[in-house]
């Protein structure tokens, strides 16, 4: 037990050390001209950029917009992907007709689809949400759809023998048995939702963190560029931890390993 | 009372029609346990799926209390070979599933489920997920689930095959007692000759595919014995075992080569 504890302690200390080396290294490197100010920013410069942004810039609005686009894209895309993934296998004819189209659509890189969304939905946040929904949809649809094709038919038989209607079987067997796939879809989708939103902002936008990053890059404002990247990284990390924490709520039977 | 009357079953295979069952007729009376035994793949499990309406006979009919069994029938309860407990439901939620499907009010079905849980030695485990239980307890839960719907005819599809030898005898004994005390009809499909002799009043031996009824043996041992575990030690057991073994006419590769 003590060996395991001390091992954990060493790992955490190691991680902190890496962080400190990066922070001090860039701080000193930039200050003494070893690292070019054009390509790197010191932590103190980034901190200054944050303070300037907070007092006079659009940083908070931009962050809020990107977070809003991401969360809405994740929510709508997941809901849509889950619904289609669950209902499609129930309708064999429709499923057979549409499957190749969906698979081809899924194969198109999102970056080439993005301009189309801008064209359809304009420069505002709607097009970014659209792109986000589009890629999250597939991240959710694919695991749920393939999962329900692998459904344990014995469970369906058992319910049928008990006299369940098709609708009862759907809600009591098919939907709950898809929840592990839904969890997988959420995990993949949460990362993609953010990518979708930022790609949309990169292609054409007037606000958002993607816009801020692109603008900072164009004006050679390197500290603000780093500020944008760090903010996105922090948001992505928080989102990922939140989705991980949803596991025991969504699929409690997979997480209770008591014997 | 469950009766198979001239039941045939065939399906369209890759190389034409495959006949699985041919003119199978036998009946299980009230308060009687009948075992069906036959070579692997002869279609003995198909008999059960015909009775519960998972498949339709291509000829003949299945009667429950003199009336044709059509689709899911309240009078029938089935215990499957594989586990059919829903992994996302706790033990008590699984036990009450059949009653829930029938639309019984929550309080009533919960009360009934808890009675059965206590009766079958699952008290204290009602909130656990099935995977946290031993194989024997899972089988008990499935049994309680089937009995909650109060069927008059119990159908068992090799339900004990996966259990260890000791657990198996205990549960076999429980099932025999349930059947004898509740004036129920029971049809057991098995590949285990000893199990058939130990539990059943009659053993129906099916031939190879297309399966017909080859022999029917009346066996008094199960009713005379105090417990299922005592039957193999009773005088007469070996004779019945040998007669059924020869009726099954299973060629053992080694024996053939030696002959």
Mind sketching the topology for me?
The complex is a heterodimer of chains A (259) and B (259).
Chain A: H1 2-31, H2 43-56, H3 59-87, H4 92-107, H5 110-121, H6 125-149, H7 153-161, H8 166-203, H9 209-218, H10 222-250, H11 252-255
Chain B: E1 2-13, E2 16-28, E3 33-37, H1 44-51, E4 59-64, E5 67-68, E6 76-79, H2 91-95, H3 97-101, H4 106-119, H5 135-148, E7 153-157, H6 165-181, E8 185-190, H7 193-199, E9 202-206, E10 213-218, H8 221-224, H9 237-248, H10 253-258
Parallel strand pairs in B: 3-8, 3-9, 6-7, 7-8
Antiparallel strand pairs in B: 1-2, 1-4, 4-5, 9-10
Helix pairs in contact in B: 4-5, 5-6
Structure, described:
The complex is a heterodimer of chains A (259) and B (259). Chain A is mainly alpha-helical. In chain A, 83% of the residues lie in helices and 0% in strands. Chain A is flat and about 75 Å long. The mean pLDDT of chain A is 93. Chain B is an alpha/beta fold. Chain B folds into two domains: 2-75 and 153-258, Rossmann fold (3-Layer(aba) Sandwich); 83-150, no CATH class. Chain B contains ten helices and ten strands. In chain B, the strands form two sheets. Chain B has a six-stranded mixed sheet, with helices on both faces. A four-stranded antiparallel sheet of chain B has the order 2-1-4-5. The longest helix of chain B is centred in the C-terminal third of the chain and has 17 residues, at 165-181. The radius of gyration of chain B is 19 Å and the shape is globular. Classes of the chains: A mainly alpha (259), B alpha/beta (259). The A-B interface holds A 154-155, 157-164, 168, 172-173, 176-177, 179, 251-253, 256, 258-259 and B 49, 52-54, 72, 74, 76, 78, 80, 82, 84, 86-88, 97-98, 101-102, 128-129, 131-132, 149.
